[in-house]
Amino acid sequence: MHNVIFVPNAVTGHGEWVTPLTIEQADYDSLFCLSCKLKLGVHIDPLTGVRSFIHLPGSIHNVMKMKTCEHRSKSEI
User: Fold this and answer.
1) Which H or E run includes 16?
2) What average pLDDT does the segment 49-58 reach?
3) φ and ψ at 62, to 5 degrees?
4) 8-state DSSP, 75
5) Which residues of 29-54 are buried (b: 16+ CB within 10 A; e: fewer)?
6) In sequence order, what E strands does 1-77 have?
7) How far is CA 57 from the centre of its chain?
8) Cα(28)–Cα(12) distance, rounded to whole angstroms?
9) Does 75 score more than 70 pLDDT?
């Protein structure tokens, strides 16, 4: 299990820079972290409806890569 790492912005597969407020649902499957280039998912809070980007490591190799992400230390505060 890993800690959830929130990311303030992302880049789509088309190269468009987006935030959780500006993301279109069609782009949910093609989000990547600007720092470590790993795939991101969209977390929608069930109570407030607030959208956030989180890392989706997928494999053990990506977990190791995620440890170098600049957003990791900000999420652990």
Assistant:
1) none
2) 88
3) -75, -30
4) H
5) eebbbeebebbbebeeeeeeeeeebb
6) 6-7, 10-12, 17-18, 31-32, 39-44, 51-55
7) 10
8) 8
9) no
Identity at 51, one-letter amino acid code: R
CB atoms within 10 A of CB 22: 11
What is the pTM (predicted TM-score) of this model? 0.79
Closest by CA to 12, choosing from 51, 47, 42, is: 42
64: how many CB neighbours lie within 10 A of its CB?
Answer: 10
Partners of 11 in beta bridges: 17, 32
Give pLDDT tens digits for 7-39. 999 999 889 999 999 888 888 889 999 988 899
